[in-house]
Amino acid sequence: MAVTDIAAPVTPAAQPARPGAWQLLFANTLATAGLIVITLVVLVALAAPVLPLADPNATAPAARLTPPLTDGYLLGTDALGRDILARLVWGLRVSLAVGLSATAIAAVAGSLIGLVAGFAGGRVDAVLMRGVDMVLAFPYILLALAIVAVLGPGLVNALYAIAVVNIPFFARNVRGLALGLSRREFVDAARLSGQGSAEILMREVLPNVLPVIVITMSTTVGWMILETAGLSFLGLGAQPPQADLGSMLGDGRAVLFTAPHVAIIPGVAIFVLVMSINLLGDGIRDVLDPRLKSGALARPGARTKIARTAAPAPAAPGALLEVAGLKTHFRVGRSTVEAVRGVDLAVAEGECLGIVGESGSGKSVTGMSVMGLVPSPPGVIADGAAFFRGDDLFALPDGALTALRGSAVAYVFQDPLSTLHPQFTIGQQLMEAIRVHAPVGRKEARRRAEALLAKVRIPNPARRLDAYPHELSGGMRQRVGIAMALANDAAVLVADEPTTALDVTVQAQILKLINVLRRETGVAVIFITHDFGVVSAVTDRVAVMYAGEIVETGPTAALLSAPAHPYTARLIACVPVLGEPDRAVKPIPGRPPALVDLPKGCAFAARCERAQDDCRAGPVPLAGSGSRAVRCLHPLTAEAA
Amino acid sequence: MASTILWRLLTAIPVLIGLSVIVFAIMAMIPGDPATAILGSYATPENVERLNRQLGLDRSLPEQYFIWIGNILQGDFGRSLSLNRPVIDEVLERLSATMLLAGTALVLATIAGLAAGVVSAVRQYGLADKALTLMVLIGISMPAFFLGLLLILLFAVKLRWFPASGMTAIYGGGGPGDIAHHLVLPALTLAVVATGVIARLTRTAMLEVLRQDFIRTARAKGVPERRVIARHAFKAALVSVIPVIGIQAGFVLGGAVYVETVFQWPGIGSMLVTAISTRDILLVQGGVLVVAAAYVLFNLAADVLQMAIDPRLR
Q1: Kind of pairing, strands A549-555 and A629-630?
Q2: Which positions in chain A touch B153 (Cβ < 8 Å)?
Q3: Closest to B143 (Cβ–Cβ): which among A133, A226, A402?
């Protein structure tokens, strides 16, 4: 129908009928069904003069209102005894011709307006598009009625009226695209080569907007057939003796109670015709513009799907939170992205553990997996366990896990503008966090929320409660995010890049705040970051992740001063040091491996200067003594020792 | 917020002016002599000339527009030829019936569409979702004028649950209960298409919102899933659904033309159809202008509502 407004996809050049477009269309069962019905209908309509049909206008008073399936009258007769089958076929012809002509007129006129507006820009664009908006400001069919009122009832006038009210849809869709195209290099090149505006429009711009015109046609043609039938039904379109499906339905209305088939048959015909056009239209749209494909968005569930075969036993009995053998995968289509490939971690009461790595190393997914916050689909926990005070979190029923979220393990996320709900005040959001865990009234919750804001050093907490997230600065918002995580005295705080979206001074303030809060509340923290500078400021221990695995772990100070894994060393070298502008920041050459197709040996080998043949031969274990461990056959510390 | 709303109200004025220009322009395109078209072909030359002077048709087009709009602003829409009464009286009388029908249909469509959209998003690819997809498809392909006839056949003729036509019973009708009884079938008919469109949009909006970071935050703080959907996701999805409800108001007001004709509902839609058949140009013009203005107000209400639920827009 005509409400689709297609956002302009700016493609450099239209690929004329992408290979496979037809296959894609046929893969869509409904669209294929629509195509078959339309093809049949069109063939029948074209063949009407040669088909063995009765004269559609021959009246037979003796045979009036014959019911369907009577001898000689397959679909019966109408109030004047005319053969309904013959009238249906001829009416179909008229309806199709009128609907398609209206679509063609609207497409040509609308596209022309859109092309000119988008290409000329400036005042021409403003005037044309204001006019288009004005037409859209009318209730859809009303303008068509006004036009018919002026021109007088009649099929051709109805056709014009329906075409006019559909022009805006073409104009708007085409204009958006043309506007983008008119600023592109190949158009500039054409201009410089001396082509005139009209020539450029026809030669360079038109081919590129053609898919959008086709999409708009396919979404409006059904609607236009419906509306012309509607005008005829009202007696404003086809005039006797000429008949289309709409006027047949209108005639049938007069004998609705005595012979309903006279109305039902043309009604069903309109419905089937329009429905098959819409099915085909949806199919065409999906092929030409896959972004709009319905069903492309999968709904992420409330909890990460768990598909492990066996649950490991806790290995670090004293730990507050332990992650054992965690494997989290993303299943996209037939491929599986192994984002986390067997991670073991443990945090003690009051401890701060840093997880460090580049984006895509699996550090955030590890943190999120603990409370089942990885979106499913596509996320799946394929193996492993997370233990909170010895309880396997992955084995808990949904309700029990929800009760522990925020009260046992709480999260602080990266960008506080997108992670706070834009339509609730921070007071409402804090109070909700309190009240889903504690049975307190609104007043008490508000008092506690105010105390929380004071705790994260937000000035004027009582007033800030009524502010919306967008009214606060980035640093303030992150303080709110931290306050919300502290709302229920959680034992563990998972802070996922909490300072990345902030500027450096604010970053320092937030890190200081986290340190102060650790002292005040004794909360254990898992601090996820890509920045070793941040790691040194807050963490006691560090785990370095690369390609979904921990490659090195140890106490922060020891690991910083003497990294064992070449990757750790390179990451540390990436940190710019304040006051040492001459120190060269050395980026790591190459990219992390794709997590769908991993090498069987060390994942870092391809980027490592120290890599040797044995590195690539097979999996490298995480080995070490005491508090330190490294996944490397030729660690840097081996030479020093 | 008050100043933002006031500003939004002011932006409706150019739209209303634009609407009047378009209606005027269409009327100016009447082939031949407008006065003859208005008075009919049997009018005396004196009457034609008098009307020409009265309408200022002997002046330039811009002048004509200002005379015309001046009259309309004073509530003078001219006199209906076929009814022999002022256009404004007839239009206002029928406006309430149309607003009752269209308003009920829009409320029905909004409630049903939002509910169906949310359920279908939450049970994505489930039975309810597939049923909805099918219903939407049928809904947007089913002509309202045919659906109305089918409902009459089933519920009025066969089951005799509801009356087939009119707004009140001929004998002893007119009470609110009687009107409501007559309202059921036409309102349902009119609501079907809008329900489908709103449901489809709500579904998409919910699926998009459920991927947002703030939904993860709500889950991370331990909000039960039911509340995450009903409160956090739904409120965010409404922001993009409300403007569509405003647009649907236009389709409902337009669809009222068919539904009023099928059910002989005494609203502006059925009036327009009769007026076109009798070539009562001034009546058509008045009806179109008033309904278009009502649509502008519907959209205005949608905008204000959207501002009310999204503080970022204030």
Answers
A1: antiparallel
A2: 256, 260, 264
A3: A226
Q: What is the DSSP string of A73-137?
A: BTT-B-TT--BHHHHHHHHHHHHHHHHHHHHHHHHHHHHHHHHHHHHH-HHHHHHHHHHHHHHHT
| Angle between helices A245-254 and A206-233 in degrees, nearest 10 | 20
Question: Which of B134-138, B263-267, B304-308 is least confident?
Answer: B134-138
User: What amino acid occupies position A641?
Assistant: A
**A340: distance to nearest CA of chain B, Å?**
20
> Quick check: A551 and A623 in contact, CB under 8 A?
no
* Residue where the block lists tokens 């986290």: A514
> A141 in helix, strand or coil?
helix
CA–CA separation, A375 and A52 (whole Å):
62
Asked if A229's CB is within 8 angstroms of B222's CB, the reply is: no
HEC-encoded secondary structure of chain B: CHHHHHHHHHHHHHHHHHHHHHHHHHHHCCCCCHHHHHHCCCCCHHHHHHHHHHCCCCCCHHHHHHHHHHHHHCCCCCEECCCCEEHHHHHHHHHHHHHHHHHHHHHHHHHHHHHHHHHHHHCCCCHHHHHHHHHHHHHHHCCHHHHHHHHHHHHHHHCCCCCCCCCCCCCCCCCHHHHHHHHHHHHHHHHHHHHHHHHHHHHHHHHHHCCCHHHHHHHHCCCCHHHHHHHHHHHHHHHHHHHHHHHHHHHHHHHHHHHHHHCCCCCHHHHHHHHHHCCCHHHHHHHHHHHHHHHHHHHHHHHHHHHHHCHHHC
Domains located in chain A, CATH noted: 21-51+81-292 (1.10.3720.10)
**Cα separation of A222 and A99, whole Å?**
8
Cβ atoms within 10 Å, residue B111: 13
Measured between beta carbons, which residues in chain A are less than 8 angstroms from residue B227?
436
Residues B139 and A223: their CA atoms lie apart, in Å, by 12
d(CA A162, CA B7): 34
CA distance A458 to chain B (A): 20
- Closest by CA to B132, choosing from B61, B76, B204, is B204
CB within 8 A of A490, min separation 6: which ones? A406, A407, A408, A409, A410, A523
What number is the ipTM of this complex?
A: 0.87
Pick the closest to residue A552 from A531, A538, A571, A539 (CA basis): A571
The pTM (predicted TM-score) of the whole model is 0.84
User: How buried is B95 (Cβ within 10 angstroms: 0-12 exposed, 13-18 middle, 19+ buried)?
Assistant: middle
DSSP conformation class of A583 = S
Q: Are strands A629-630 and A335-347 parallel, antiparallel or unpaired?
A: unpaired
Question: Would you call B222 and A437 a contact, using CB atoms and an 8 Å cutoff?
Answer: yes
Handedness of CA A43, A49, A50, A54 (dihedral sign): positive
- How do residues A270-285 score in pLDDT, each as one tens digit? 999 999 998 888 888 7
Task: For residue A3, count other CB atoms closer than 10 A to its CB.
Answer: 18
Number of Cβ within 10 Å of residue B75's Cβ equals: 11
For the CA atoms of A608, A614, A619, A623, what is the dihedral angle to 10 degrees?
-80
Intra-chain end-to-end CA distance of chain A, in Å: 75
CA–CA separation, A132 and A321 (whole Å): 62
Q: Which pair of structure tokens corresponds to residue B279?
A: 């070539």
Residue of A nearest to B252 (CA): A139
DSSP state of A621: P
pLDDT in tens, A383-429: 999 999 888 999 989 999 999 999 999 999 988 788 999 999 999 99
CB A405 within 8 A of CB A310: no
Q: What is the mean pLDDT of residues A302-323?
A: 85
